[in-house]
Specification:
alpha/beta; three-stranded antiparallel β-sheet; 8 strands
Amino acid sequence: MSVPVPSPSAVTAVPAARNAEALAHFAARLAFETDVSDVAADLAAGVTDIVVVDSRSREGWEQGHVLGAVHLPTALIAERARSVVPSGVTVVTYCWGPGCNGATRAALEFAGLGYPVKEMLGGFEYWAREGFPVETVAGVSRRSVDALTAPVSGVACAC
């Protein structure tokens, strides 16, 4: 009688990290990143110890940005950060979306200046796709929630 040979697994071909390593890794990710839902909740609650920074170009900012964000393109952070962002706050950077590393570069600039900083996962794309308020020169609007990014019922995903 032959013993069945397990089929090769694409998931476990590289074994999962040991628990201590996994704990360190995932805790570190949460120290460096936040998501659009958490940022939206803090802004709606009037939390004052964060400043959300849009690091895109003027054209991107004018096309639409997070309501309540500060516009500070990455190339100007070293020059202008101290006059725009108070010390003692946590900076939350964002750019276009997951396919753009502009928020990472902006976060690096703020970290170099000594600010505590987190990158907003999903960027402006996911902010808009989750139906949060978008500001343009024409005013504030909200898009319909994309069912692939958040519950369309408007209830928070509570992940």
